[in-house]
Amino acid sequence: MSWITVEENSHFPIQNLPYGVFSTESEPEHRIGVAIGEHVLDLSKISHLFNGPLLKGNQDVFRATTLNNLMGLTKAHWSEARATLTALLSSDCQTIKNDAKLRSLAMVSQKCAKMHLPASIGDYTDFYSSLDHATNVGTMFRGKENALMPNWKYLPVGYHGRASSVVVSGTPIRRPLGQTKPVETDPPKFGPCRLMDFELEMAFFVGGPAKELGYPIKIEETDEHIFGMVVMNDWSARDIQKWEYIPLGPFGAKNMGTSISPWVVTMEALKPFAVPNYTQDPTPFPYLQHDDPYTFDVHLEVAIKPDGSSTSNVVSESNFKYMYWTMKQQLAHHTITGCNMKPGDLLASGTISGPEPSSFGSMLELSWRGSKPVPLTEGGERKFLQDGDNVTMTGVCKGKGFNVGFGTVEGVVLPAIHLG
């Protein structure tokens, strides 16, 4: 129990303690905080309290403006930090609780906190690791017999995304311009995307001391290089993507914005929610094999609130446990070539879809390529997103008597810009 009041359904009890970067109107400097109930614990104000054997010489990481330096320490450092925070916030600890001056400096209401990107993201990679999603999309475009490409069950398919357009929750996303080919027999057209979509994803931040170029992260080492997770909306322009993606894959269709939730939930907080990994057939190559469970029971929800409406419409309820490839396998495969990872790099799951239509993670699937409109509760329907639609994604692990949540990631679709 914590001396901070935490509501029963809060995403941020003492069992969670996710990291984020925030500022306030009175103190506009970016600083690191930890969410607890409806508050943020400002770590820059209590950095001197991290006086354990590993962190007493690294207190500066808690006074930084991003999480990169903390992410760059070892897993043992992360565990010591979590143990220190748990002790400081426990009901029997007087250090902050009974120090009125320190408490007033260090405890900030979340209502007064403006959230920022948690890390400086050097590189961003998006995978394609949901079997149900890959099967659905493949069936639409190639038929059921050829839904999966021959390589899909042998390696975690991925592509390099655009780190500069990864944004924190609440950032509006503008409908992109681009080339499309709505009629196969006609020449391509230029204009606003007509098939704007969300993609329900999760992503993890890379951590640990960076390896040199040429040295892979072995599968048995991956646990030391996965810092924590966020919920992600990887916005997608389906019609632009269809025309551009051959032969090199997505480009402009995926670079107009990728939204992430502001709180990074650590892997230690997620451990109680680990579930058996997806059964993989054929058996992966040895460099991708691990026996420990490393997928997680994270309940995911997507809601759309149209412009001018007071009602959010839940259109998808899915779960991270549906992923075929694990984060360990994704990281091991990404680096098997010797690719060097840096703390703060972001690796995403790809769209998360489950076996039932209600668990599909994109409008492309929910409307089955526009052939099955999704009804809204106040009337109207959606095949794809319209201008003014606010998309909110929520992720939470449900324990016995407590939750470990990610909060939300949301963004509103703005109209396409008009070129002069």
Describe this structure in a few short sentences.
The protein is of the alpha+beta class.
What shape does the CA trace take? globular
How much strand content do the residues show?
A: 25-35%
Say how many strands there are: 26
Rounded Rg: 22 Å
- Label the structural class: alpha+beta
- Mean of pLDDT: 97
Distinct helical segment count:
8
Query: What share of the residues lie within helices?
Result: 10-25%
| N-end to C-end Cα span | 59 Å
For the report, how would you describe the main beta sheet?
8 strands, mixed
Q: Can you tell me the residue ranges where pLDDT is under 50 for at least 5 consecutive residues?
A: none
Description:
The protein is an alpha+beta fold and 420 residues long. Helices cover 15% and strands 27% of the residues. It contains 8 helices and 26 strands. Strands 6, 7, 8, 13, 14, 16, 17 and 22 form an 8-stranded mixed beta sheet that branches. The chain is globular and about 70 Å long. The mean pLDDT is 97.
Spell out the key features of this protein.
single chain, 420 residues, alpha+beta, eight-stranded mixed β-sheet, five-stranded antiparallel β-sheet, 8 helices, 26 strands, 15% helix
